[in-house]
Each structure stands twice: as C-alpha cells, then as structure tokens.
Amino acid sequence: MSETVFKTRLTDLLGIRYPVLCGGLLHLADANYVAAVVNAGAMGFISALTFPDPEQLRDEIRKCRELTSGKPFGVNLYISARPDANDRLIPLVSVVREEKVAVVETAGGSPAAIVPLMKEAGIKVIHKAPAIRFALSAEKAGVDAVILVGAEGGGHPGYMMVGTMVQGAIGPERLSIPVILGGGIGHGSQLTAALAMGCEGILMGTRMLVSEEIGAHRAYKQRIVSGDGLDSLVVMTSFKNHHRVLHNEAAEAVAALEKSGSQDYADYADLISGKRAREAYATGDTSQGMLDYGQSACFANEIEPVVTIIDRFMQEAALGLKRIGI
Ligand SMILES: Cc1cc2nc3c(=O)[nH]c(=O)nc-3n(C[C@H](O)[C@H](O)[C@H](O)COP(=O)(O)O)c2cc1C
C-alpha cells in the first residue's frame, strides 16, 4: 500500500499511521476499544461522559495508557448546548489535563472555553462540527483541526443536516487548519475521496460498533450486522436536536410524540434516557433506548476485531487510489 499518500497534516499532528479517527461513542468507547483502535494505527477517543466519576475516568485513561504502551490516544468531551448540563464536565476536564492525554475531540457546543485549558496542558483539540459556520468559529477559537460531520452520521448530525459530500468540499476551501470528514463513512474508498477533496482524514462511528472490542452484548452487534443503515430514524427534530438512531420501538414512540405536537420534555424523558440505551447495550434488547446509529451500518456486515476492520478499510482506500490512477 502506498502509505506515503496517507500521510497528511493529521497523521503528523497526532503521530498516527493512518488518517483515520474513530469518534467518541457514549457508553461504548472505553479503554479496551480505544486501545484497539490506536494499536491498529488510527486514533480513538474514550468518551468522558461514560465515566461521570472523575476517578473512574482517570482509571480508564491509565488503563488505556498501559494497553497502548505509550502511544497517543484521545478523550471525547461532549459539550452540552445547555450550560448548566456542563457542570459534570468540569471535573472530567481536570482529569484530562492532569493525565495529559494527547488529544481531545470536542463536540456539541462551542469549544472556546475548553481550548485554552487544553493548550496550557499541551493537549491538542480537534472539534467536531455539523456545519462549516461552527467549524470556522472553532478555528478562530484556536483548535488544531476540525471534523465536519454530515447528515448521514449516527448520533447528532446537527439540525442543518448538511450532507457529507458537501462538507468534504467546503471544509478545505474555507478553513486553513486540517479538516477531517465524517458521517456515513465505512468504506476505504471514501477516505480516498475525502483526500481528493482536500480533507486530511476521515472519522468513523457507526462502522466500528460491530468491533469485537466494543463492550456491548453480542445481540446488539448482530442487530447492527443485520441492519442496512436505511433502518435509522432522525428524531427530536422538533427540539432542533436532531438525533439519528436505530429505528426501534422507542424511536418510533418518540417520533409519534413529536407528531402529536408535544413539546413537553417530561413526555420524552424515559424514552430518551441514557439509562435505557445503557440497558440495551448490556442486554442486547435493542427495542429500547435512543441507540445512535447511522447510514454507514450498511458497511458493518460482520463482528470482527478492530484491526481487521481498519486493515480492510486501508486496503479499500489503496484500491480507490489505483482506480483513479495514483
Ligand atoms: C453509538 C454512538 C455513540 C456516540 N457517542 C458520541 C459521543 O459520546 N460524543 C460524540 O462527540 N459523538 C458521539 N457519536 C458520534 C460519533 O463520534 C461520530 O461523530 C459519528 O458516529 C460519525 O458518523 P457515522 O456514525 O456515520 O460514522 C456517537 C455515535 C454513535 C454511533
């Protein structure tokens, strides 16, 4: 494989082999999974909010450090749009600084308050944004790189629902810092396409859910294997909090509530609670919970180790290059 082609400002920034990021996965991206991603040559992020007790997060970071034998790895910091909800993030940010992780992936709200805290500690910041205007603000705030995620993506693709193909072309045109493309990515040829558009790497979430190292029930992973990505549903649009999830009974109930015109959050609380999603991951009962899931599930056809998924992805990327004569 022509590895030099896959050397970009992103691989230089993070000291990684492949320009591939595996984004934070609430309740799922723990030390085991992130270490597998890092050891496969990509970059992974422990989801801080999975470990609301700061000492638990510290243990997870230390475990990951051991499993990766000192290679750089990251932590995901999801910033809520509701400032009061970020109180729980403050002690976690302190742990990330004290433990001097290599990089954080910020997402959700503006990273402006977090950037100086990370810079002081020598930690790189990559901000994930759902549209170019937020990416431009993040660049101004001093982040090292941005991830632009398109509407195809699992989780929160933003209320503007801009497609990945548009994000991939507009990002490098408007920004000077490296741009990473995400949303619906699960085949290596999409990395080739992203590089051709001027992006310097890609990000995956849904594609990785069927990894052996993801600590969820096998029945949950089998459900994703049997899915085709068309079975996702975007809910909470009436709250402008678009959420692309597996089309299950709970998501249908949420869609029905929205259709009925309810704007009372209390009506939704149980259906959308994180507890329900955690139970689904633990028991394999995928009928409940808002289970983040995007269109790239169509590429997740087998439960496999992370390294197998990443190796194949890079082979597909190399084949993509050959196809266009590089
Ligand atoms: C199960 C799951 C959980 C996620 N949890 C988080 C999270 O905690 N923080 C975050 O920034 N993004 C989260 N995301 C979004 C991913 O990091 C990534 O941006 C998204 O999955 C990319 O789109 P894709 O699913 O099409 O690959 C999650 C996605 C999934 C599928």
From TrEMBL:
Keyword Flavoprotein recorded: yes
CDD domains tied to this protein: NPD_like
The UniProt record lists the keyword Flavoprotein: yes
Coiled-coil regions listed: none
Keywords: Flavoprotein, FMN, Monooxygenase, Oxidoreductase
Lineage: superkingdom: Bacteria
The protein's name in its UniProt record: Nitronate monooxygenase
